[in-house]
Amino acid sequence: MTKKNKPEIEVKDLTIGYGKNVVLENLNFQVESGEIFCILGGSGCGKSTLLKHIIGLYAPLYGDILIKGNSIVNADEQRRRKIMREFGVTYQGGALFSSMTVAENIALPLEEYTNLSEEEIEKTVEEKLHMVDLDGFGDYMPSELSGGMSKRAGLARALALDPKLLFFDEPSAGLDPITSAELDRLLLRLRDTFGATIVVVTHELDSVFAIANRVIMLDKQTKSIMAEGSPVLLRDTSPNEKVRAFLNRDGLKSDVAEELRITEVP
User: Which of 28, 157, 166, 173 has minimal Cβ neighbours within 10 Å of its Cβ?
Assistant: First the structure.
């Protein structure tokens, strides 16, 4: 009998919030190696807050988060930083340093966390630019890039240390459909070619159905997970009307739409 590998991420009895304000409680789920896992839900349900807890930026009120079997919650600062070095994170808009060129942005984690020579760093930067289809844009300033290019440059920086675990917060937000589809194909390529495990916070349903192996859907009212599984199966067969309404974006009853506070994508 083959022994099952440990999940890349395991969230156990997690409760998160700010002070006495509980945002989500009693969360339990796993992210398996090599899958694209999306976190969904209506506005204000805590999607980005959950992501920030998973990557170690915030401490939970209760519970644990294991990254490759190692607790990021109970680790000391040195151990937490070591765990955090094993994954890449991209934020909305790319979050590039505006006073640095694209190449300098990508080189930053290499300069901080490795002993590579200047020549080796330059070669690595070129490789990462090629991976995200930005060959020749290393000397550009972030202000000279389009929205889609900025997001890809942010991804190149997240890939600098060759992480196998990647996190994205609304990667397609503000992008036109063609650019969004190109980014989806890039994420699929990272998974299929490099074996990356990818966690995405998003409300872009086209992207969800294009890339996600599994999803969880958060509920603001119950402060919990109201659905987990394949997005297609949840859309077509979920017994929960709110889940079907969210994933179909049609036939919403007014009370359900108000509860979900769904905002249509322009």
Answer: 28
